[in-house]
Amino acid sequence: MKLLVVGAGTMGRWFARSVAPAVDRVTFADSDGAAARAAVAAFEDRDGTPETAVDDGGPADVVCVAVPISTVPDAVAEHGPRAERALVDVSGEMRTAVEALADAAPDRERASFHPLFAPGNEPGNCAVVVDRGGPAVRTIRETLVDRGNHVFDTTPEEHDRAMATVQARAHAAVLAFGLAAEDVPEEFHTPVSGPLADLVANVTGGNPGVYAEIQDAFEGAETVADAARRVADATDGSEAFAGVYAEAGAGAFGLDDTSDAGTDGDDP
Among 156, 205, 251, 265, which has the highest number of CB atoms less than 10 A from its own CB? Predict the structure, then answer.
């Protein structure tokens, strides 16, 4: 099976490595030719990998689009028709991506995969929308499972709604804490502030362009800002704050009957 990966960045390279056991040849295409050549060189340094080359413009059995969310429609339209068996993407947004895949390759297998982890943190959970199934898509799924990942089915609507919380709003909240926090000696950190500081380091150690794309694609920062304003306004009285406190605990994540709120070691 011949694989074309459009986008030679971290995620494109990860996908190529992941499905390497099932392919005979991998080619990389990228708007930055140096990035494509670097991806090829990185593959050639590995033993037992398939034949690897820079894209020559020809057809491929499977085309995987691994580009920033905002550029998915154009990349799919340009390279999707080259897929002879399957067209997939790993962009992280599904409604627009699935529509673009169908427009570009109506008679081919199609699926949108979203690994919910950075490649260095594999294995983990991987969401997938299979828009038109078949043996090539099944093979991709099986290779991801063989690497220890949990691949689960979803819909574009369910996925994108979840991403607004688990990515856009989560990232906005972490970055807001990083902006609001002042430097304090390590011994002052609590069981809440310490992990938050670690999350700030984790998020800001990534690629800011990727995080910007997520904020643009999903509702995030404005919702978090509105929530922070509600907390600030509720400090005028303990009863108002208690209401916001309870609402937060019983919100999207919810609290079960065994939860023991207020005992995380951070109380005075």
Answer: 156
Q: Tell me, yes or no, whether 33 and 124 share the same domain.
A: yes
Measure the CA angle with vertex 39, ends 34 and 44; round to 5°: 125
Range of the domain at 64: 2-154
Burial 236-249 (b: 16+ CB within 10 A, else e): eeeeeeeebeeeee
Query: For residue 52, what are its two tokens?
Result: 């690897």
Measured between alpha carbons, how far is 140 from 147 in angstroms, rounded to an integer? 11
Q: What is the pTM of this model?
A: 0.87
Whether 30 and 36 have beta carbons less than 8 Å apart is answered as yes
Residue 183 lies in a domain: yes
Give dist(CA 39, CA 221) in Å, integer. Answer: 34
Alpha carbon 60 to its chain's center:
25
pLDDT by residue for the chain (268 residues), tens only, comes to: 999 999 999 999 999 999 999 999 999 999 999 999 999 998 876 656 789 999 999 999 999 999 999 999 999 999 999 999 999 999 999 999 999 999 999 999 999 999 999 888 999 999 999 999 999 999 999 999 999 999 999 999 999 999 999 999 999 999 999 999 999 999 999 999 999 999 999 999 988 999 999 999 998 899 999 999 999 999 777 888 898 888 888 766 654 444 444 444 444 3
Name the nearest CA neighbour of 66 among 130, 114, 18: 114
> Which residues share a beta bridge with 114?
127
**Domain-terminating residue out of 125, 154, 183:** 154
| Cα–Cα dist 266/189, whole Å | 9
Let me know if residue 51 belongs to a domain: yes
Burial of 37 (0-12, 13-18, 19+ CB in 10 A): middle
